[in-house]
Amino acid sequence: MAKNKKSGKQDQEEKGYSAFQWILFVGIIPLVFAAVIAYFVMSVSGVSFADAIKKAGGKIPFLDQMAASQEQKQKMNEYVHKIASLEKEVKKKQSKIDQLQNQLDSANSKMEDLQVENDRLNIEMENLSKQKQAANKAQMSKNVAKTYETMSPQNVAAILMKMTDEQAVSILSQLNTDQQAQVLEKLPPVTAAKYTRLLANP
């Protein structure tokens, strides 16, 4: 009984080997042989074996779709990488723009401060100039008044008659009250009254 089981097992192994051998000899070896012959024929005729394989694979729908899908995926990855690179460059440029804008704002602020300071200095200079002119005018009036103090009241009155009312009153105001009285006595009554009124209400 044991012998029969053993012989059955050997028969199955022999059948298994013979089936494998049949597939090897009938299927695989002829395909390899045909591929080798095709390679030599194509090489002799000047046709690229790799290009022929690609063309043949492209005619098979499944392989063609796989190749197209792989190519699309590769292009998509390239686009994503390029977009990321461009976004990075845009951020860098924007950062530079913001930095330059800050510098420009700071420069504008400084210019405004300088303009305000310049306006203040101009106003101060204008006030000083007016004060200087007023001081010079007052000094000149004093000098003129001193000159008239040395002259006789009659001569002073004659000179004042040839001046405008404003000039005459300005000179009279620089004289002391005694000298004013002496000069007014030498003027015509109407003129003396007018000058007196102007001296009382400067």
Automatic annotation (TrEMBL):
Transmembrane segment boundaries: 20-42
Superkingdom of this protein's organism: Bacteria
InterPro entries found in the cross-reference section: Mg_transptr_MgtE_intracell_dom, MgtE_N_sf
Residue stretches making up the Magnesium transporter MgtE intracellular domain: 128-199
Keywords: Coiled coil, Membrane, Transmembrane, Transmembrane helix
Coiled coil: 69-138
Keyword Chloroplast: no
Any single Pfam family the record assigns to this protein: MgtE_N
Keyword Nucleotidyltransferase attributed: no
Protein name: Magnesium transporter MgtE intracellular domain-containing protein
Organism: Bacillus smithii 7_3_47FAA
